[in-house]
């Protein structure tokens, strides 16, 4: 019995497009701050985060998970907050955060 093997022939542009499709967005590690200074977020390389929100006594902290361009913050209290990851900006709960210097 002869086995059939499917093969695909890709030209250079198809290979390039395939390679680009495989590039994943990396977690936006670092410190982030809203323009008005009311929200601060520190995203760490170990998969955890800590934050500060003006007017809140309890500081948010927990773990995060990145799927595509959405970073989901999972607070120790059980709250899950989606964060849209853009080019040099994070958007969450009506706040737009930029990297701190």
TrEMBL record:
It holds the Pfam family Atu4866. Gene3D superfamilies: Uncharacterised protein Atu4866, PF11512 (2.40.128.290). It comes from the Bacteria. This is Atu4866 domain-containing protein. It comes from Paractinoplanes pyxinae. The lineage of its organism: Bacteria, Bacillati, Actinomycetota, Actinomycetes, Micromonosporales.
